[in-house]
Structure formats: C-alpha cells, structure tokens
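Thought: the user wants the 3D structure for the chain below. I'll pass the sequence to the structure tool as-is, report back what it returns, then summarize two notable features.
Action: structure_tool
Action Input:
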Amino acid sequence: MKRNALLILMIMLVAAGCGKKQKNVETVPEPAAEEVDMSQYMPSLAVGAEAPDFEAPNILDEAVKLSDFRGSFVVVDFWATWCKDCRAEVPAMKQLYDKFAPRGVQFLGVSFDTDRESLVSYCIENDIAWLQVCNGIKWKENPISTAFDLHWIPTMFLIDPDGKVAGVCFTADKLEKILAEAVK
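Observation:
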C-alpha cells in the first residue's frame, strides 16, 4: 500500500515538472572506470569500521537514517542521475535488487542530485524500486560524501546488520561478489 502511494506521488511530481530541463546539474569530467587505476578513488573507510550514520530526506521528504536499517544487510549506493558511470550501473543494480532483496538485503540509494525532480523522473523512467534519499547538496560539498570519504561515484557499500562496513566497490559486478560472500 505504502509503495503504491509512493509511486503515485512520484508520478505526480514528475508530471508537475514535465518538459523542464535539469537545473543546477553538476558536470564533472568522467574518465571511464576501466581506463583509470580505481584504487586511487577507494574510500579510506575500511571493512569492519563503523559506517557513519546520516539522515537525509526520501522523495516524500521523510527523514531516513542509515541506522534505521540496523539488523539487516544494506547496500548503500552513492550515485547521481547526471553521472554517466552511475547510470551505466543501474541495470545491474536492478538485477542485484531482484536477486538479494527477497533474501532480506535492503537497498538505499543516496543521490547527489541537486534537483529532486530529476531524480524522481529518472527513477520512474528506469523502474528503480528501492528507497532513494537526496538532501540536494552537491556531491563534493555533501557532508554524507565527506563522512564516507567518497572520491568517485558510483561507490557502493555493503553495511552489515551491526552497522559495520562489510564491503566497498565501484561496480555492481563486484558488489554481487561481496553480497554472495556475505549473504549466504
């Protein structure tokens, strides 16, 4: 029931902004992930460390905290709709969601979009079913990004039921390997 209400609200939000161009879109030159040594972008937040708690609004403007997910494995996907590499990972993330959500893994998208309307539109158009939060603050200025020491998006963390980092990676295929090992 709550999910249907959420979808209806998302559709209404998109309809209200139909035809508008994205505003305040952060443009960052992005080399393809396979062309660079990605180790230079790895966050310093180590496996086994306590994941920083944060709070951000979902698309209904309701506060969501990472600590709300304690007791479950949670994939935290840091991304943005304007990010080419992030968009390229969406189909594989949807497959992971379909495979692991029924096994109790929670998924939380943390968007660095500054235009919530763009985020809602993108999620509807691409049938992204998992929870999204967005505080409207640019990626490199965002306190959530700072807390997780992000240097690249997409960056995906697996947080264990105790709130500790169980894995970190940049691609859904690597995330699948981490999930398969952690969620047996």
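Final Answer: Structure generated. Residues 1-29 have pLDDT under 50 and may be disordered. Residues 2-16+47-182 form a domain with the Glutaredoxin fold (CATH 3.40.30.10).
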